[in-house]
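Cross-check.
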Amino acid sequence: MSPTTRAAAPEGPATAAPEQSTGAPPGSSVPEKVRLRKTPPRTPSPPSSKATPPEVAPPGPRSAAAPAALGRRVAHRLPRLLLNAVTRSAAVAALLLLWETAPRLGLVDRTFLPPFSEVTDAWWGLAADGQLADNARASLVRSFSGFGIAVALAVPLGLLIGWYRPVADLLGPLLEVFRNTAALALLPVFVLLLGIGETSKISIVVYACTWPILLNTISAVRNVDPTLLKLARSMDLPAPRLFQKVILPASVPVMFTGIRLAGAVSILVLVAAEMIGAKAGLGYLINASQYNFAIPQMYAGIITISAIGVAFNQLLVAAERRLSSWRVPTAG
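Predicted model, tokenized:
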């Protein structure tokens, strides 16, 4: 190449030649702009008519370790549960052991305090011939009837007195007169006015159970946290909703304290009422056993009353926990 032709070449950066198309034959000229072929969009294939069932994963190590973890949890909590059971029953077991050994060692007269084993035999004898079931049924019907009527009357009245000050001012002096009058002191009055039938016994139970429930309900309503009331009023809640959503839930714990006290009172007062003019009931069984000098049967009736009282109290505790489950449990 001559120097003249070399100088005629343009000065500047060298440009890369465009790529040749794959379909061009060798030696053919390559166009300046290569047109790219447009690929058509893929259309999704229609779903198959037969749906494939999901594959079930084989049981892995986590599912196999779940029973083992549960077993370890139970094994970890079992000593604590056993310790709590032993601690709670130790005093009762000590009392029963003392009851069994004291008459046998001559520390007390076994005529008036027979050993616990003899009382147990008498209890099984009363249960076998049906006397215990008949008398317990009569007492439970009277006690639960009076207790239910007292709850139905005292709870609404206590809520009304505690919430409305004019009602409290009107009924306050009358309540103070009757609350300081013992129920057993009025037992002859109930017998004179209502007779010696079922009406007088249920009425004395209603009277005795009303006061713990009524007074605790009044106290519960009046001692509701003022902060809760301010928050509820700031949300413009109407009075019925305020009473339903704030007053009633906040009053449940103190209210149930009175209900539990009334449950114990219903059994104690009934036993005293059944000793006067009754023909059936645990109080009648105890009184008749004393007159007939059947001392083991008398103690068997007393033990039955104690067992019924404990079971009734535990039932009320369970109901209280169910109705006040919103409370945050305190530590310890």
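The chain has eleven helices and no strands. The radius of gyration is 43 Å. Passed to J.P. for a second look.
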